[in-house]
Design goal:
This is D-inositol-3-phosphate glycosyltransferase. The protein is an alpha/beta fold. The chain is built from 17 helices and 13 strands.
């Protein structure tokens, strides 16, 4: 019996968590008789989504590099690192294959070097500055096989030519039936922003963009911001205060994280992803395509590989509340200009981001790793228009 270990740094059910669950299900489908351990740092909403795919869910400490606790990790946390690496090494030794979701799981990547040829790391982030330098060095040290979730991610990490790596876009299981194209300007435009509340995601910029709309247009917009801050109540309170101070309490509703967002996507006309720093890809934008909802995104990182500007959605400069406001005004007042976007969005999802396509790419890397072959795997060829028709 094959023994496979899947390691994830989170325990909630946001985009990266849902992508991890889908990968575990892919592994289960590829190796139905395997024993699959899933290692998490804490129990949470993700556990229920893993049941049926995992043979066992193990809750134990993981040495995770998070920006907010780097100082603690560099001081007190260093004492725990040797024990964390030893624990990871035991799991790798007991496994035929170890799948590590994201680059921040430092203990497993450090241990992977000691037992080469067993580990796959799935890169879902585009860090900057010193953080990128640290994480790039960590992957190179590990000599793990690499799956990048976009060409933007691959370019950011710039691995050496002899690295075993491929690009596999995150695929999702979309709804069988997309939303009908229904906005005609006779009711308020329903805008959804779904995701963790953080400085990276841009909730504050979106609120400011709505505040800048002319009153006649602002009254024709309804915005739902759905999500919670990671252990940061002050950030949630600051966002609520911004909405109130801008006089937008009637237009903007803030609500906490929900595990199942289907009803929200069914409500929305447009999904906003106004990220301020590079998204490695952007799962929420892909989910919007699957529902036939045009996304309104920042022209940064992998988001430009998802959305075709003025064809399947809109792309605006990151950090510009003015540009975002102008685009929203056009969306509200000129629905005739984007009548064809919903159907085009769904077609793009089916062509590029369907879960079957992602599963094939992941399964190919797993097979190669289990073969213990040193031969390099060149980048999987994503559909040509995903790379060549980028927006922004």
């Amino acid at each position: 019996m094959r023994r496979i270990t899947c390691v994830h740094q989170g325990y909630e059910l946001y985009g990266s968590d849902r992508s991890f669950c889908e990968t575990v299900r892919t592994i289960r489908e590829a190796y139905p008789q395997a024993w699959i351990d899933v290692v998490l740092p804490k129990a949470g909403p993700i556990v229920a989504s893993l049941e049926g795919a995992a043979s066992r869910i193990v809750i134990e400490p993981i040495w995770v590099l998070r920006r907010r606790n780097l100082l603690r990790l560099a001081t007190l946390g260093m004492a725990a690192l040797p024990f964390a690496v030893a624990r990871a090494l035991r799991r790798i030794r007991a496994s035929d294959l170890v799948y590590v979701n994201t680059t921040v799981v430092a203990d497993y990547l450090l241990a992977a070097r000691l037992l080469p040829g067993r580990t796959v790391v799935h890169v879902h982030e585009i860090p900057e500055g010193a953080t990128l330098t640290v994480l790039r060095s960590l992957i190179r040290w590990s000599r793990a096989n690499i799956v990048f979730n976009s060409r933007a991610t691959q370019a950011a990490f710039a691995m050496p030519k002899d690295a075993t790596a491929r690009v596999v876009y995150n695929g999702i299981a979309g709804p069988a039936v997309p939303n009908p194209a229904r906005y005609d300007g006779n009711r308020p435009l329903r805008v959804l922003m779904l995701g963790r509340i953080s400085r990276i995601k841009g909730q504050e910029v979106l609120v400011e963009a709505i505040r800048q709309l002319p009153e006649a247009v602002r009254s024709r917009v309804e915005l739902k911001i759905v999500g919670s801050a990671f252990e940061d109540d002050a950030r949630e309170a600051a966002l609520a205060a911004q909405v109130a101070e801008a006089g937008l309490s009637r237009q903007v509703a803030c609500s906490p994280f929900v595990a199942e967002p289907d009803s929200l996507y069914r409500w929305a006309d447009v999904v906003a992803v106004p990220s301020q720093l590079p998204e490695s890809l952007g799962r929420v934008a892909i989910e919007a395509l699957a529902y036939g909802i045009p996304p309104l995104v920042s022209g940064i990182g992998g988001l430009t590989e998802i959305v075709e500007d003025r064809a399947t959605g809109w792309v605006v400069p990151p950090g510009s509340a003015e540009a975002l406001s102008r685009t929203l005004a056009e969306i509200v007042t000129r629905p005739d200009l984007w009548r064809d976007y919903p159907a085009a969005a769904r077609a793009r999802y089916e062509r590029i981001f369907d879960e079957k396509l992602a599963a094939e790419g992941i399964a190919a890397m797993l097979r190669l790793t289990l073969q213990r072959e040193p031969a390099r795997v060149r980048d999987a060829r994503a559909p040509a228009d995903a790379a060549s028709k980028s927006a922004g």
